[in-house]
Design brief:
The protein is mainly alpha-helical and about 400 residues long. About 75% of the residues lie in helices and about 0% in strands. The longest helix has 20 residues. It is elongated and about 70 Å long. It starts with 14 loop residues before the first helix and ends in a 5-residue tail after the last helix. InterPro entries: TPR-like_helical_dom_sf, TPR_2, TPR_rpt, Ycf3. Keywords: Repeat, TPR repeat. This is TPR repeat-containing protein.
Amino acid sequence: MCVPISVSTQKLEGEDYYNKGISLYNVGKDRFDPEGVSKLKMALKAFNKAIKDNPYVPEFYYMRGITLLQFIHFYFRPFTNEQENMFLKSLTDFKKSLTLNNQFYIAYSGMGNAHDRYGLFDDAIEYYNKSLLHEDEIKEKNGKEALASIYFSRGRAYHRTLKSRCIQDYEKSLKYYELWQTKMHLATAYLQAGMLKKAIKMSDKAVNAVMSKEYQAPWDYRALQTRGKCHILLHDYDKAIDDLHRALDIAPFQDPDLLLLLGEAYRKKGNSEKATNNFKKCIEKSAELLKHPHQMKPKYTVYNTRGLAYMNLGLYDNAVDDFKSAAKLAPEYYPHAHTHYKTESLKNLALTYMLLGNKQKARKVFDKAKTIAEYQELEFTLRELNELSSNFS
């Protein structure tokens, strides 16, 4: 997470451009829509002018660096040459901040953010570690919110590789400052760790936090989605259904995952007609997304979701085809929304083969998923696979 910082000294040359850049950055960050991108480009121009007027202020370079990172994310690999250059330029800016002031320790977290968004999670963690060696200085100079953001960011990097260590960092982040992002991520991590009571409590906090914001980010609906999952596991199906409908209302597109979960909630509630209708809607919306992709929903995630809908409808051959497509397209190392879709789709394919009565194929595919998870040390994934192991013995 990149938190803007303010120049706390007396009036400096270039500060007006810097403050203008901060305002534009705050409007454009994490939006991914044309207006947001336009504001970020304007912010970059403002920071460029600030640096031209006064090339000796580390904050100016730092903020230009984190603005550049808004154009980079491993979700969108392979990167263009322009994006590759932005990544390198951001690192140069963070290093320049440290050259100008070797005690500008927050720049290390900027380097961590750069490597995280590029997809180099272990490198990102190393830079966050460097920053946190100077925890007291950061808290004094930049405040508790900045320190909370660094702990959140390191936790998120651990979470990218499904490490349970993320929980420790998220919890520490909240002790310093209650960021809404931390609440959302911690609720998901608790759920993945099987800590259901903590997950539902944190989900309540996450939903309250995102719904009280002035501006809804594109993925805020996932707070309701996570709480809906918790309610299903707690057998509170009416609450789950309410949350999932609310999530559909605020989501920037018809996310088939929400329709899939609605189908599961109605099925477990005993309403087979509404369950079937939602599974069919899930398949319909998935087909639309495969034809006209949405940037928040890569094709491999859609194939996996549609495969699950087919499974629920007993259309196992269709499910097999979709899980194979998901496994083929999913990145080997990069997650999406803290799910490792390579192993997730292989797991679902194995379960489908079991339903078809082909235990030999099921075991082979399941073992492949587990081998990948063990090699990459995907702790949350391994927890789920270990719970399922007895089904494939």
